[in-house]
Write a structure and sequence with these properties.
Strand 6, helix 8 and strand 7 form a beta-alpha-beta unit. The mean pLDDT is 96. Helix 1 packs parallel to helix 3 (81-97), helix 6 crosses helix 12 and helix 15 (417-442) crosses helix 16. Helices cover 46% and strands 15% of the residues. The chain has helices spanning 8-23, 27-34, 81-97, 118-134, 153-166, 193-207, 209-214, 233-244, 268-278, 336-344, 352-355, 358-372, 381-399, 405-411, 417-442, 448-466; strands spanning 38-48, 51-61, 69-76, 103-110, 143-147, 225-229, 249-255, 258-261, 288-290, 303-306, 325-327, 348-350. The chain is an alpha/beta fold. The strands form two sheets. It has a seven-stranded mixed beta sheet with strand order 9-8-7-6-10-11-12. It has a five-stranded mixed beta sheet with strand order 1-2-4-3-5. Bound molecules: nicotinamide-adenine-dinucleotide. The site of nicotinamide-adenine-dinucleotide has 24 residues, from helix 8 and strand 7. The site of nicotinamide-adenine-dinucleotide (NAD) has 24 residues, from helix 8 and strand 7.
């Protein structure tokens, strides 16, 4: 599906090249930034039901200008070295855009997880983790994985435990992985963080009426017609939040086996339940089914949220895309060639390296929480509550006005971990939007994607130059 002319890596490199040109960066430095520092290719055997199976996996280390290097682990049959390298590069750029002090990395195993039992997946994951740890590609201080397509809290828990047994004297072992279950040191709000981040990006976009007008839209997120591709971790949460909390109307959901369309709106929650029960969306009663799911990407809508896989908007279909805004929740859903076609057609692209950064932002919070060995809010929650009460009492005494109900509750509630994580994520996504907007304006750029990449390359270049690496 990816643009035949270029690999995923080439597509990412071309975006970086555009930014390098804008900055007039020296070629040697640009090449140092763009290329992967190291790529580990693994073949590892695991005994499955009495037979030895050999699995192929990778971990690419794109940059180490900040440590640890950070990036998810993907389990899919489509995983290959080029993809892992491209995703590792995107991680470097992503972290720079949202001011997360990490380098970029990514891992993957070529596997169909649905074909193996839970115990078999545990053995495969533990073996992969052991290979990574013994080769220096897994550690709280240098390389920290997280979930990506096909992996989740369960896999992160297995990886954590594998590392812990190999390094029992590492007091920070819990920080070797993020996206863990909360009872094993995970942070509240990490599971939904990427989707939540997509929501915060869209909210911020709709706060800027000039950007909204430039996309040919008016008003806010409420009532906007959304086509959503992928109902996995990212797509499900993004779709659920924008529809249930902001009033956006999900008019189509595209999944692996086809698409559902209903102009009156589709319940993300109900479709997710149906998908989990039936393994596909075909047969869902409250929407029309379209066998050729990818054709639905071309449906008339306000927002298109590709949240499944890379290369779905390519040279072959880009000119037929009718959405006014494409919010790239997946990594690399638009090829370089398609990106240019969309921009020339006046479509606003909110780029992946920014839009789906919520996961790594909250992973950063989780890593910090693990290193400090204390849950966010534990020290200040009750203190803030009593301070709130004191202020209220002082105001009541001086004004004679008595606060009651929801207002009193809100003013005297101390922040818990989830509230703090959400606030930190919201602030980060808003801050990054402002930086991208300013860069777009100051350099006279046509699109948000180039502006985001210029920011990333500029920050990484500065960190290389500051320490005199080159
Ligand atoms: P996931 O495995 O949870 O979900 C992927 C979903 O896409 C599944 O529901 C799957 O059935 C669906 N899908 C697969 N092929 C499809 C097709 N051809 N058409 C339509 N739907 C299809 O994965 P995820 O974690 O939600 O990741 C999705 C994307 O977001 C990936 O590009 C990933 O790299 C990116 N991403 C994920 C995170 C994260 O925190 N999980 C963070 C940043 C970026």
């Amino acid at each position: 599906m990816v643009d035949k002319e270029f690999s995923f890596c080439d597509n990412v490199d071309r975006m970086a090249d555009k930014a390098v040109d804008v900055l007039g960066l020296e070629k040697g430095l640009a090449s140092a930034i763009k290329g992967c520092n190291a790529v580990l290719e693994l073949r590892f055997p695991v005994e499955i039901q009495g037979k030895v199976e050999v699995f192929k996996g990778w971990r690419a280390l794109h940059s180490i200008h900040r440590l640890p290097s950070k990036g998810g682990i993907r389990y899919a049959t489509t995983v290959n070295q080029d993809e892992v390298k491209a995703l590792a590069a995107l991680m470097s750029y992503k972290c720079a855009i949202v001011d997360v002090p990490f380098g970029g990395s990514k891992g993957g195993v070529c596997i169909d997880p649905s074909k193996y039992t839970r115990d078999e997946m545990r053995m495969i994951t533990r073996r992969y983790a052991r290979e990574l740890a013994t080769r220096g590609f897994l550690s709280p201080s240098t390389n920290v994985p997280a979930p990506d397509m096909g992996t989740g809290q369960r896999e992160m828990a297995w990886i954590l435990d594998t590392y812990k047994h190999l390094h029992p004297d590492d007091i920070n072992y819990v920080a070797c992985v993020t996206g863990k279950p909360v009872h094993l040191g995970g942070v509240r709000g990490r599971v939904e963080a990427t989707g939540r981040g997509v929501q915060y990006v869209l909210r911020e976009f709709f706060r800027h009426s000039d950007d909204v007008a430039a996309a040919g839209l008016t008003g806010g997120l409420g009532g906007k017609r959304v086509v959503l591709q992928g109902l996995g971790n990212v797509g499900y949460h993004a779709g659920k939040f924008v529809s249930e909390e902001d009033g956006a109307l999900i008019v189509a959901i595209i999944e692996r086996d086809g698409a559902l369309v209903n102009e009156a709106g589709i319940s993300v929650e109900k479709v997710k339940e149906y998908l989990l029960e039936n393994g596909g969306v075909k047969g869902y009663p409250e929407a029309a089914f379209v066998e050729d799911g990818s054709s639905v990407l071309e449906m008339e809508c306000d927002l298109l949220i590709p949240a499944a896989l890379e290369g779905v908007i390519h040279k072959g279909n880009a000119h037929r895309i009718k959405a006014r805004v494409v919010a790239e929740a997946a990594n690399g859903p638009t090829t370089f060639a398609a990106d240019e076609i969309l921009v020339n057609n006046g479509v606003t692209i909110l780029p992946d390296a920014y839009v789906n950064a919520g996961g790594v932002v909250v992973s950063y919070f989780e890593w910090v929480r693990n290193l400090s060995h204390i849950r966010f809010g534990r020290m200040e929650k009750r203190f803030e509550e009593s301070r709130g009460r004191q202020i209220i009492e002082a105001i009541q005494e001086s004004t004679g006005k008595v606060f009651t109900g929801a207002t009193l509750g809100a003013l005297t509630k101390g922040p818990d971990e989830l509230a703090l994580v959400r606030s930190g994520l919201d602030d980060t996504m808003r801050g990054a939007y402002e930086q991208i907007r300013q860069m777009k304006e100051s350099k006279g750029l046509k699109d948000f994607s180039t502006a985001a990449f210029v920011i990333a390359i500029e920050k990484i270049a500065r960190s290389y130059q500051d320490v005199g690496v080159l």
